[in-house]
């Protein structure tokens, strides 16, 4: 057919699978945030922390200065994901909260506002496909800013670390980074989508999510102070995700091959954030994730009927 | 509330107008056809498939242009239509080719790269129409496609629909309360009122069945004239509500003139009338 022929002609081809349709939706949604300059700045901020560590690793490696915090996996846990800010919140968790609010809050609320659901549901996709597409697009976007820098740091450490690690230890670190990233992104994505599905005003959904994030921490602190007990720590979103994230990493002492006088005292392993093991916070996050997705699904079902 | 009841309709191929006043149940019927709303009782078949059992297969073969604005304002028309094509199951390359082809067909040329949110109402309708036909559906459901359009944009939209409904292998159901739109585009009409089927036929049949009539205005004895008409074998004369008579008769004016002479009345006006779809519609729904 000639390229200049632009008249209407029928289409006779083979339909793709439903997975391919979800992938198309994810690809479209993933491309959208990068058109926003503030999102780009936030993404760069997440990466700049890692780039800073890579520079330090390079300088230390070049001058043979041992860096205790770079041994094993401490650099991922304390140097990046749980990088302190002097407040109840870690730097990374705040960046992640802001990004998920900016990007995630609009995902469903925008479709509700502009009644784009009519377009989606008149296509051959189900509510579950739609939900999965939105959920995966947010998880993947957040993984770009969580797992992305983590992997960059992993590669940097692979090349510049003075520590000799076994293959198993390396893979263990890689698994820990991946798991930690998923703990940070999956529940947050589900929760943001739930807030996004509750309203057709994006800013309201973003405010709801930010309020949840800050109020959970302040409620936790207030109850701790009032009850003089540590159990309310589990009510803080930041505490729960940071605690579970920490548990992903195997605690390794500094290697014998590099003798650093007083290395353990220079950077002692911090105590666990929560004193309840992994099961209660894991169940809490899993429950919240499931509940959030259920909220979205029910909302979509009611909207489909209304439309 | 029951939106549809006792609706037994078989919609033929071609361009069919789904006509009815607001609240007649047209949109509900479309939602049922698409599988959005399951019927509480009865059965539905779209292209031989049951929307309750195979909604995805139906939606793959059906294009839908909703009445309301339904778009993603941050996307360009190209991205919007491409997304619609991919969600129906077209592979990437086919989807992109079809996207440009249908956007060109509807008349969105360079504007296709602009965000849909910046479009005028007419352009948004065209983008909506393009997403409905991008996968070359067997059946196209158009819900009030000319709503909010100025006369020129409306004519453009009607010409597009007329074009797609004739010779492109796409059957069209045009749901509207605007009779002109149906007359321009459709061959058949299904008339609904208060959730029930009122009439269903070819437009030409519906208008022809009552088109043979004369309107007569006389001066003189009306009863004598009616009696003379009966004498000529014409029974279907009734007051037109405006001081004149409407005579249902289609074999020329000679018997009417003979009746006038016989009864001694003066004919002031004698015109042949044609029943329009609007007349028929008003009569059927009691408007």
Poorly predicted runs of 5 or more residues of chain A: none
What is the CATH topology classification name of the largest domain in chain B?
Answer: Rossmann fold
Oligomer: heterodimer
The CATH first-level class of the largest domain in chain B comes to: Alpha Beta
What does this structure look like?
The complex is a heterodimer of chains A (307) and B (287). Chain A has 11 helices and no strands. Chain A has 307 residues and is mainly α. Chain A has one domain (18-255, 264-306). The longest helix of chain A is centred in the middle third of the chain and has 34 residues, at 127-160. In chain B, helix 4 packs across helix 5 (121-133) and helix 9 (222-231) packs across helix 10. Chain B has helices at 26-34, 55-61, 77-88, 92-106, 121-133, 151-165, 179-185, 203-208, 222-231, 254-263, 277-284; strands at residues 15-19, 62-65, 139-143, 171-176, 188-193, 196-202, 213-219, 237-239, 245-248, 266-273. Chain B contains 11 helices and 10 strands. The model of chain B has no long low-confidence stretch (mean pLDDT 87). Chain B has 2 domains: 15-207, P-loop containing nucleotide triphosphate hydrolases (Rossmann fold), CATH 3.40.50; 210-284, Alpha-Beta Plaits (2-Layer Sandwich). Helices cover 39% and strands 19% of the residues of chain B. A 6-stranded mixed β-sheet of chain B has the order 2-3-4-1-5-6, sandwiched between helices. Chain B has a 4-stranded antiparallel β-sheet with strand order 8-9-7-10, covered by helices on one side. Classes of the chains: A mainly alpha (307), B alpha/beta (287). At the A-B interface, helix 1 and helix 5 of A face helix 2, helix 3 and helix 4 of B.
Architecture blueprint of SSEs:
The complex is a heterodimer of chains A (307) and B (287).
Chain A: H1 18-31, H2 37-62, H3 74-81, H4 91-113, H5 117-121, H6 127-160, H7 167-198, H8 202-227, H9 237-247, H10 263-266, H11 279-306
Chain B: E1 15-19, H1 26-34, H2 55-61, E2 62-65, H3 77-88, H4 92-106, H5 121-133, E3 139-143, H6 151-165, E4 171-176, H7 179-185, E5 188-193, E6 196-202, H8 203-208, E7 213-219, H9 222-231, E8 237-239, E9 245-248, H10 254-263, E10 266-273, H11 277-284
Parallel strand pairs in B: 1-4, 1-5, 2-3, 3-4
Antiparallel strand pairs in B: 5-6, 7-9, 7-10, 8-9
